Amino acid sequence: MTEQRRVVVILGAGGTLGGALVRKLASEPDTDLVLSDVNDAAVKAAAESVAGAGATVETALADVGELEQVEAVVRHAVERFGRLDVLISNAGVLAQNGRIHNLTTADWDRSFRINVMGAVNAVHAAVGPMRKQGSGSIILTASVAGMTAWSHSGPYCVTKAGVIQLAKVAAVEYARDGIRVNAVCPGTFLSGMHKELSEAAVDAIASKHPLGLGSADDLVGAYSYLASDASRWTTGSAIVVDGGYAAP
Ligand SMILES: NC(=O)c1ccc[n+]([C@@H]2O[C@H](COP(=O)([O-])OP(=O)(O)OC[C@H]3O[C@@H](n4cnc5c(N)ncnc54)[C@H](O)[C@@H]3O)[C@@H](O)[C@H]2O)c1
């Protein structure tokens, strides 16, 4: 009998953490990938970065804020590979800096649409095939911002707290279907999100991490664990990988 291959969908695969996740998971045995992002060039570059690594890699464009588009990505995976074992919801945006009275409804709407509804849409779409299989692992990228308070970052902190809570609710709703749902809460690693920050601001953030700033490669082990059978008794958890940021 041939060994069943593992099928992984990554939403928000075109960014810094997405790229590191693509490289990590493509390097693991018997794994095929469907990579998705709203940025076509970025997701194609992520796929090209692992050409020849052994995994079959497909790409699909989607805005995570639109349920039908996320469902189309999942459908693509199931039609192409026959199943869906792991879905990583990794798309996210940082709203512009501002205290609450200086932010607009549009600032909040965008953060809720992409960070919260993007993750809700990911769960909604993934549980269809996973329930039929009776197995699956859903991994939501949250943030330490969802468990600690940052001034001037209300939409980001509030929406990432929502992602952590979504992982818990979905974990209890789908455990009986054999589906595990967990969140990963990274501390700061420099990425596309920080391109506007001054060196002084980066130094200030780094000083709050006892182990210093991380890199996306410091995070992939947690995802690899949650995507594997080694985490078979882990669900509803928020795994913190933050260089000690949230410890004090
Ligand atoms: N960089 C950090 O310090 C940090 C810390 C904690 C959590 N995170 C989270 O990690 C995840 C990845 O972020 P990153 O730091 O690699 O940033 P990034 O900007 O490099 O990547 C974000 C990706 O999300 C995609 N995206 C944005 N809106 C989308 C949409 N509507 N639909 C589909 N894709 C969309 C972008 O195109 C990009 O490829 C995010 O969820 C972010 O909130 C980042």
Structure description:
The chain is an alpha/beta fold and 248 residues long. It has one domain: Rossmann fold. It is 41% helix and 16% strand. The chain is built from 7 helices and 7 strands. The chain has helices at 16-26, 40-48, 67-81, 105-133, 154-174, 199-207, 220-226; strands at residues 6-11, 31-37, 57-61, 86-89, 136-141, 179-186, 238-241. Strands 3-2-1-4-5-6-7 form a 7-stranded parallel β-sheet, sandwiched between helices. Strand 1 (6-11), helix 1 (16-26) and strand 2 form a beta-alpha-beta unit. Helix 1 (16-26) packs across helix 7 (220-226) and helix 4 (105-133) packs parallel to helix 5 (154-174). The longest helix has 29 residues, at 105-133. The chain is globular and about 50 Å long. The relative contact order is 0.14. The mean pLDDT is 96. The chain binds nicotinamide-adenine-dinucleotide (NAD). Nicotinamide-adenine-dinucleotide binds next to helix 1. InterPro entries: NAD(P)-bd_dom_sf, Sc_DH/Rdtase_CS, SDR_fam.
